[in-house]
């Protein structure tokens, strides 16, 4: 099933189309190649054009609405993804998470013990950009977008078990209701709706991570930031240099997310 339109793609090379008889028939089965279209030779058709138009539209809307109250919840959920990335890195490296909090000033904190600090500290900014790219990639398929929504709901539910502050509780419950509502509407009302939401989550979280790195680590240095913590671990890495490395990786993740989404759509 395609992402935004139900359509059939007929490839020029006959290997992807199997005909039962010599005469073309509307009942002939169409078989698609199992090999991913890494070179994007089948791009860009209607589906990919709609996808790229939505990405551009989301970015444009975010640009004009960035400093409005309308996007405040999305900024806070991006901060949640940042803090949850710290927590995930802590768990992976054998540490213990004591609390996850998000504040109204678009800050947050993850309290933990143990783990490998060299992995936990950069996981916030880089994890936020990584998950943004994952959401963008998974928006290319209906089942994949449902899986991403379920993972998002699971992360929100897990966060409630680690001493969340009041904002974190309301944020988690609010986005759980919103995401479950979109799942319901996608199943019974309008089919691509969940994919639109998944793509918006990915575009916003990814662009927020890039802006956050630029604002906190490159244009200025914030005492107590992740870049300062990296500088304390590796004194030769100045905070702004750390920020520059972070933003390059973050932009790379966003580019890969778009590329993999296009490969997915053009291969089906």
Task: Give keywords.
268 residues, mainly alpha, two-stranded antiparallel ribbon, 9 helices, globular
Question: What's the short story on this structure?
Answer:
With 268 residues, the chain is mainly alpha-helical. Helix content is 61%, strand content 5%.
Continuous helix count: 9
Strand order within the widest sheet?
A: 1-2
Distance between the termini: 8 Å
Radius of gyration over all CA atoms, rounded: 21 Å
Structural write-up:
The structure is a single chain. By secondary structure, the protein is mostly helical. It has helices spanning 46-65, 72-92, 117-120, 123-138, 142-159, 166-188, 193-218, 226-233, 239-266; strands at 96-102, 108-113. The chain has a two-stranded antiparallel ribbon with strand order 1-2. Strand 1 (96-102) and strand 2 (108-113) form a beta hairpin. The longest helix is centred in the last third of the chain and has 28 residues, at 239-266. It starts with 45 loop residues before the first helix and ends with a helix.
